[in-house]
Specification:
alpha+beta; 2 strands; rod-shaped; about 90 residues; two-stranded antiparallel ribbon; single chain
Length: about 90
Amino acid sequence: MSTERTVEHPDGRVERVTENTSAPTVVERRGGSGMGAIVALIIGLLAVLVIGYFLMNMSRSEQVESNAIAGAAESVGGAAENIGDAARDAVPAN
């Protein structure tokens, strides 16, 4: 079944429109495949792993730095002891 209607435009044009109402209406739905969510999840996991790696290395760096400072302090202590021994040996005993 068709329906005719007339449309008058402000500029004076007259348009006749015929609509076919017996034709079925087709509705298209497009859905995502979900790949975007999967990619976002993978990127999120990678970001967590990278951040964890850097935090663990920072902790190790601080431990290495602490060990280096302790070793240097021990070396300075040993050097001071050697200087004390040398000074004691240099002064003749009375």
